[in-house]
Amino acid sequence: MKKLLKFLAIFLLFSSIISSSAMASSTRTVTDMTGEKIKIPKKVNRVADLWHANNQVVLLLGGQNKLVATTSLVKKQHWFTVVDPKIAKVAAPLAGNQIQVEELVKIKPDVVIASDQAQIKESRQAKLPTVNAMYTDFAGLKKSVTLTADILGGNSPKIARQYNKELTNNINLVKQHLKSRKSTPTVLHIVNATDLTKVDGQKTIVNEWIKLAGGKNAISKKGNQISVTPEELIKANPDVIIVGSTSTAQARKALR
After folding, report:
1. CATH fold of the domain at 186-255
2. Angle CA(227)–CA(230)–CA(233) in degrees, nearest 5?
3. Is the pLDDT assigned to residue 20 strictly greater than 50?
């Protein structure tokens, strides 16, 4: 009996080692934009992308066929539906900014990509490998594109390198052309025509666009899609107003 128990203990030990080894060989580790190390499957086939902007990166990198979850906003973007008609049939397990966790779990994503801290926390609590891809400047954008390419695998890393190289060249080209500019206009970036008090402030990629283009953000507060009062907008007195996610005619009508 003692010999049998000893043999059984050794067998269980080896089984555990083999099981752990098999699990390790089927996963890999990526470091997200916050420095968090996330274990993901070695081969990723199913991606839930809960960040509007990153869906465009997945498309750029040729990974759109791996998208099993997206956002309602992406599904409504006309240009996106033209380039990738299949996006209309991809699930969008969000109610506003809130994750419908049960729906997301049912989709069985290999990896969840997000930028909202609350969404990331919820997704991780549901035991889903969740990667934060958020960035606020061009250096972060390049790093996030590389991270997304690493998640997707295949030919994506090669496309990411090409994109980052072209982005650097374009940034340098714009800087070169603006060397002789005489003025720096102030620019107000309103998120959409539905709520004119929701704007993009400092420490955002939008702020980086404004600066690169030779302007100065009219908003001194920090953050994406922050709320300001009508009085603050009047005080900002911008030279240029840009309204996102709408047409010029609709933007002018809303502003009037």
Report:
1. Rossmann fold (3.40.50)
2. 85
3. no
